[in-house]
Amino acid sequence: MAKRKSHGGERSYSGKKQKTAHVHDPPTSEDVYTGRQLRQLLAFEQDLGKARHGLQSSKNLLDSIVSDEGENTEKLQILLDFLESVKPREDDDKVPVYLPDVMETWSMATQLNNENVMSAVAVVLALLLKVISRRVDLAPYGLGICRTLLQKRQQELLAKNLSADNGKDFIISPTLRLLREAVCLDGGALAAPIFRARSSTFKSLARNMGLRYLGDGVEDPKRPSVRSNAIRFLLSSLKLLHLEAKRDLLFQREIVAALMRHIRKDPPSLIHDILDTLRTTVILDKKLPKDIKIRILNAHSLIKIADLYGYSEEPAEDGSDTANDRPSVEESAHAFLLAACANSDAGVRRSERGYYPEGVEPDTIPIGVNDGQLMDFGVDSIPWMSKFEDDVPVRNTLLAEFIQTLRPWSSTKQNELLVTIFETSPELVAQYFCHKKSFSFDPKLSATWIGYAALLYNVVQLPIPAWFGHAKAYARVPPPTSVVLGNIIPLPMTLKVITRCFSIKSKIASFYAIRLLTLALQKLARALEMHREASSSPDSIWEEAARRLVDEFTQRIPDIKDLIKCYVALDQGDLLQRQAASRLLLLYYETIPQLALRAKFDVSPMLLSTIKRVQGSKGTGEEVVMSLLELENLCTIAKYSPSMRWFARASDMPHSPFTTLLRLSIEKSTGMSNESLNNILHWVANEHQLVESRPSSRGLQPLIAALKSVGNIDAAIWAFLDNCVERCARTPVKYIEMIEEQLEKAEIPEDDDVVTCPLMMTIAEQITFLAASSPGKSTLKELAKLLSAYLSYSLAAGVNKPFLNAAKELLAAGFGDEKLAAKLRLSDKKKFTLDTQENADKQGVVITNGWEDGVADGVDSDLVPLMSQEELEQKLAVPLPTVKDSSLSRWSSKTAEELVEEGHASSLIRLLSSEHASIRKEALTNITKVATKIKDSAYDNSEQAWLLLMELAESARGLIDDEPAPSVMVAFACKGLEVLMNPLHCLYEKLNLFLTSGPSWPADGIPLMRAVLQDGPTDDGALYAELAWLLGLLLDGLRTPADVALFHRRRVFERVLALPANPFLGPGLRAEVARILYRASGIKGGSDTLVTRFGVVGWLLARRDGGAADDAERAMYGALLRRLWDTCDRGRIEEWSRGGVGRLVDG
Asked: Model pTM?
């Protein structure tokens, strides 16, 4: 019956809807005992009060089931009976509708604007789906309910609930929970359809994410706000949606902005879920394009997430184990930002060129400027060389904007994040400090200043990128000096600031300044070394850039006089600071000697005081170590210092610095390592002609060995030796002439092979004066014993024997006592072998004049390290890939991109090697279908992939009827697809040329082997990358005796065995060659072929005894030789070699 029109006046009925029921009216309910009762309660009612009563009763039932976690089987059975009773009948003509009465009640409540019922329906449906999702057997009911929700009528109801007014949280939140349960049901089976209906299901999502909790305190996890529910719905969708849907979702800018807008005010659990989900489903999703990732990883989002540093939270929100085990908000934000900013796949970080700013062409230089010839203007002829002192353009503008907002001086995690960004994007270092004008390093001894210093320390410590950031090799032009200098010593480290750090009375300020300068000098040394590597001649543009770099660096650091002043003023007990300062002084002399030598620095007093402190040290082990490190640094400085007085005795020291150091190295009373100390002693002895500097001379080794053999030496003898070395160093010519006289008397011709010792002549001259001074008899006896040992050790060291006999006569005459003279003996017994040389020989080092000249020429083949066959298998065995027959059907549901990049096409290709002809033929048919599918798709490399697969099919068509396809053909097709996926691959061009050269591949050929081994690399520096690919192909293609025969015919083994002759071949490639031999030895007849046809036994012995880089590699070759012997036909090989192979293996 039609509604009657109103004809009344102003006071007549206006036709407006009645006012809604009060929100806070408590609903009534009753206990439910049967499924039939539950169905009656949820039946459609015109009276919405009764409908609300039924919904509340259902809610109570579902709440009890959820809280009992399925233990209350009686109530669960009630629900099962109800679901079965309301299950719609299958009718092909109608779309099934689940819970039609509930849907009808919801529709009526929406028409009448009854908000209580609108909310109650959403609550009941959300709880129902939550219960269903816990049981697999109930999944069909849940899917039916969700499909019903996706019908047009229910979509409108969902949209109505989601777009309720801002204050209607009790309607919006249950609806969002309902959608989240629907998305997550059955592993996201309906996530895609729900997203397709996004005009309704995602309606007002951005607005709802802005409805955050406004109460006091922290949001209760059991009563989440609208924002929390909306965000969890969004995160669930991101986890379960496929790639295209996720892409469309992230394209909605307002949703992304709303997600990050109030993140700092969200509860910790929600923040953790946001960051963890975005990291796993967006940042680490390699299939998601970078242009989509950047939608959510924009500057606004990164800044908002960085605001979470310092987020304060309670230990746990609800006291649950999950909350206690969850990382803190600050840790989650830190992990997210590290993944986003340091990973190139995340989309934030773009590829860059290190120290070369954006816009420069380092391989393009003006005409007339090259590596070998310099224009008159040199570096100044490069137009952009001096443009980057005030600003440095970069490619990573997003990161450059973001890092300016960080506060690394206030947080260690922000410090770590910034340093990580600098390490992965070195171009940002100079640009950051150019723009960070507020960064003041003026020492104020505050926590902020210490944070500044820690950041600068970490930045200076960063390594220089390979080739200064240029790809594959050094560029033709060096990077701008200002950029390199800005990375070595950042702009806040000004000369004024560093000098002030030394001048104020603060140990921590001076210590930081010393450590920063130490790191800067070490980094400068590495930069200069790289300039020398890139330079082809002393006059090249790289050399001029290096000189300019040193000049500008020296203008940014304090003069060495300021550093010396600081070092001298340090307290004697401040061992850590003294060691650091001495190390810095040493680096001045080693790295920038032109600045260090300006000051006339006499290191003698400090060296003597340090020696005195070391001798009298009674402190802890750490204090002794620090003193010894300081002493080593000062000794090395003394080498460079022209004003060092090695043989001058100080008033408070019994001996000169040289003799004192010699005594320290002999007595070992301090536990000091003798390596660096002996080097200093040998250098001084050579420099001041105490010993001969011939290559065959052993320097001070005989004297040191003699002093050690005697043991405790009288102080008078030390004073005597101190006098001798001082006289020999002062007038070396006098004693050289004495040597010549003795050689003439002994009629010894002077040539390069005659080794003598000026110091021995000095001792022979001065011993007369010692005897005349009437020392004790015990002293003279001890001296005679010492000199006998000295003569004997000198003979063992190769000193000329007639010369030693003459020296012995002079020494005997000097004693003036026949008994003492009789104690002088020149013995050649084995006990006088020099221990230093023996120890050096054990390490493969030859010592000449006390210096380590390098690795010994030969290696003792008897000392071959051993490797078991189990260790050899672990090192060289590579498992063969296996493919299941299910690959024949699995590919049909995949996209073209998934077929190529996820290996489904490769799995089909490998089935061509199956033992069963039927599988091979079916695989060939499917390969043709896959090729067609790829060609018809929008895949980037579809044409090349289609061509490769069709050529494979054409090549294998006539081969697979009787036998499997050749392993090399199958391996080449699989590896070729990997190359086609990456257009930047070093073999991309060669592979495309090969594919376009013919319609099929020869069955007895090795594709691309000639192109790699003979034609040279396509790109400079790609040789070893191409060799690695080829060796991987050969290893994958070697599986059967037929493959061994093919390798024999195509002379593969000869070519492979010749590769390690290249001295620059890396250990990884040498190991790959060994893997090919190991694989061949496991194939029937493979070891016999290698031994008889390719001489692999001699090759392995040569590699083991002279071509291995270390003991581990030698052991590998030895074990591989044993492996070949164990797997070959010994009878045949013994007969063929007449027992020679067996003797070589066993001997």
From this structure: 0.65
